[in-house]
Amino acid sequence: MFKAVFNQASDMPISIIIFTIMLTCLGLISLFSISMHQFGDLAITTFTKQLLFLIPSIVGFLTILFIPKYIIHKYIYAAYSLMLILIFVPYFFDTIAGTHRWINIGLPVGVQPSEFAKWIMVVALARYLSDHNLRIKRFTTILFPIFIALVPAIIILQQPDLGTAIILLTPILPMLYWVGARPFHLFILVAPVLSIATAFHTISFTVWAILMGSVIYLTQPRLFFGVMFYFGNIFLGLLAPFLWSSFRPYQQKRILTLFNPELDPLGAAYQTIQSKVAIGSGGFFGKGLGSGTQTHLKFLPVQESDFIVSVIGEEFGFITISIMLIIFSLFLLKIVKLAFLAKERFPGLVLIGIGTIFMAHVFVNTAMSTGMIPVKGLPLPFISAGGSFLLSCFIMIGLIMKMSDESIE
Amino acid sequence: MLRSKNLVPRSRLLVANSVIIFVFTILLIRFFHIQIYGHNQYKKRADINRIRAIPTAAPRGMILDRYGQILVDNYPTYILTGLPNEMGNENWSFSVISNCTAIDTAILIDNFDRYFRGRFIPSRITKDLTFDQLSCIEEHKHELAGINYIQFSERSFPSGVHISHALGYVKEIDRSLLRNMSEPEQYDVGDLIGWQGLEKQYENLLRGDKGLSFLQVDAFGREVGKVEDISDIKPIPGQDVFTTIDLGLQKTLEKAMSRYKGGIALVTDPVTGQILAFVSSPDFSPDIFTGNTTLREWRDIVNDPTKPLLNRITNGLYPPGSTFKMITAIALLEGLMIQQDEEFECDGIYQFGDRVFKCWKLSGHGKVNLDKAITQSCNIFFYQAVQRVSLNRFINLCQNFGFGSKTGIDLPNELAGLVPTRDYMNRRYTSRGWSRGHLLNLALGQGELLATPIQLAVYINKIATKGKTFIPHFLLSKVPESTNSINLNEETWVNVEKYLFNAVNHKYGTGLAADPKINGVKVYGKTGTAQNSHGDDHAWFVGYAKDENQMASTIILVENGGGGGKIAAPIARIAFKHLFNKNIEDRLAVK
């Protein structure tokens, strides 16, 4: 058995491992810097905690390598059901930081089951979409995958954890696209969401309406459907502001809080400004390890997880940020290439799904830190502090290893 | 089970690759924009974020007497502060402090609110902690999160004299005060500012310049250490102010005046305008404005019917009484309206129209000339003689001697007194409501006329120096400023001085008691017994003494004291005795 694993390992894409190690090291250096000026017990700094979390993470990574591919395929629906139960469990525990995200298992650290929902959902979705009887060109076929992702997403949204819920939904479109769904069907899926989202801004809504019209014109669906779809969306968009204003203020607030639960008392604008100041003051070469004034004087909020990029930007400068972004992009390009080269559809889809999850994390985190999108707490893979997330990332690396088949090249 | 083949067209790979490259290019451009293009702007922001300039207090200058003896000094005390953000249970903290310091919790909370400037800036709770109180608080330190004590200098008064009205006091600036200040940028809450007296007048000299200490602060405004690359700006201590006060004389006169309920003793040097002693009685200990004066003590001082807070020398308004007779004499002499030996009959009573005026000596002075009228202070003489002078001319002379306007002494809030001009009288009584009988009152310094003692000092100094005196002042280094000029015949000055000499030296003189009888020292003066509608007569003595080296004038007033010759003149003698003592050593307060 070990020999088989070893043989398999020798076929694995070694570059993925190298990228993972590089990114993990960058994360550890940043956390070390943050911990340099932390007071209190030396053993429980963010840095040492993260070092400890590496142990279960590597164990998790190796465990995946030992599980044969067909076992994963066979039991993934069972795992999916178990996952649905697990993400319910936190509701039976006391809230931590006002949310039902963690399961207290008697250890000093809690477990966050929603982290594992991400990749379990991806694998389950991959199994469904790789069924050879699947008639992907039919619209009704693509509704079930949405259901697979939506169920855990809605449960997690209630925890509340909007970030993870959004991450859960992101793999659907790329995976459907990869498997060959008609782009127009995908467009139909996205359209209502965009109709509501743009409804609160006149110019955006006009642009969207024109865009939607041209897409329908170009794809030429049946006339009745096309007209119904177009005006249905316009109507939805026009209705949304009225619906919103018909809510009472506390209801509106509840909905807004749902979409931005980590709203800082000082205001999200404060976080964004401080993050930009930290990144901008770093310049090209940065201020050096442990010399970031914004970081160490605590101007930077949640610096060890959500705003870790700001620490890197301040202390190690644009040069390191560029290298980090290049590594991430090479890492993702490699995953896509592996997906393309996969012999079977199932591993290919798993790779695409996992790649999407990584990419969504990297984009949301960095775009938020630089003020491109509203503040939404999502960690940066391999770099941000956090045990469950690190373990989840390493398991996904394990899955990438497992699903790739470089020997075919 | 894994049978489905992975048949993906190359175009999908290209789309996926393009999306990844596109997204990461956008991110790279964004970072470039912030880190390279916006670097300077964000670097500035980062520095503002972390550096806070903390002002360091400059020690206030001392106030000294003319010989360098200390009147006002600084004295280090401890004040207790609380950092609002770090204080847990405020009420508990206050009750612990209250137990340690024996100060009521309500007062502590009141102070705390008064000095509150924000959650991250320490606010004062109480001050003047004794060592015992400090050690008690130190014992309970674990219960008192956010509570600290710092050193703070306070004014102290080691000399033992009060001189409270001249020195004035400093006030600590609190929030409401700072809001109402005209130039608030110079001060901060907790700073001391001269609020009255010399402390206020010479605030700019005494204050000094604050220094700046640059501290690194964190996002919560907490100080975390020094900034290495910027050095502190040292505070420049305030200058010491030498006053013209003679501490020994001040002490002697304060003691002499303490026997009476109210009054003043003022000694100036007519030649220079310097103020040597300044006693406004009753006074108060200047340290009531420092430390924890209780509300009750305060109320006692404020509501005291004898008004200890009133500076009687610059803000007390009195009828000058007979001390004013020299004005009338000068008016007569200057107008050549009287002969030196011209006599009027005084039989104790004088009838003018339907009014009856009396002399203080009811049996009458008999035949009286000008010399005798001043020497023996005969009223009837002046009632009759003054009728030769026009009101305007008389008022003009009063104004030339400085009555009715501020003297310009270097103390804030001086009053101008009142000279009843024709316009004033018309306004007050209508043009038919008053008569020349009014002038008869004026001749004796009574009626509507009101003067401050400092005006009387200028008046007597002008007589002593033949009009060449200077504005009274406290600052030793000050170049004396001339008073308004007054042109009288030399003969008039000589005659008036002769009368004043006789008033003290003639065997029937009213001011005999003012002469200390020191060889070579000549004393001149005039007593006054001013009628006062509120009670007994005020006792006055104005006069001066000189030998070949120095000159000094005194103004003495004992409120409701009775006769000027009996009550006020002996106090002047005490002052002269001290000043003309040949032994300099004896004149110092500290022996």
User: What is the CATH topology classification name of the largest domain in chain B?
Assistant: Beta-lactamase
The oligomeric state of the chains shown is heterodimer
Q: Name the overall outline of chain A.
A: globular
- Continuous helix count of chain B: 22
Largest interface: A-B, 55 and 41 residues
Mean pLDDT of chain A: 83
Radius of gyration of chain B: 35 Å
In helices, the fraction of residues of chain B equals 25-40%
Helicity range of the residues of chain A?
55-70%
Main sheet: strands, sense, barrel of chain A: none
What number of structural domains do the residues of chain A give?
A: 1
Strand % of chain B is 15-25%
Structural class based on helices, strands and sheet pairing of chain B? alpha+beta
Record field, number of beta strands of chain A: 0
Q: What's the CATH first level of the largest domain in chain B?
A: Alpha Beta
Cα distance, first to last residue of chain A? 24 Å
The CATH level-2 architecture of the largest domain in chain B is identified as: 3-Layer(aba) Sandwich
Overall shape of chain B: elongated
Spans where pLDDT lies below 50 across 5 or more residues of chain A: 261-266
Report on the architecture of this protein.
The complex is a heterodimer of chains A (409) and B (591). By secondary structure, chain A is mainly α. The two termini of chain A are 24 Å apart. Chain A has 17 helices and no strands. In chain B, helix 3 runs antiparallel to helix 5 and helix 10 runs antiparallel to helix 21. The radius of gyration of chain B is 35 Å and the shape is elongated. The termini of chain B are far apart. With 591 residues, chain B is α+β, with helices and mostly antiparallel strands. Chain B has 22 helices and 19 strands. Chain B is 36% helix and 18% strand. At the A-B interface, helix 4, helix 8, helix 13, helix 15 and helix 16 of A face helix 1 and helix 2 of B.
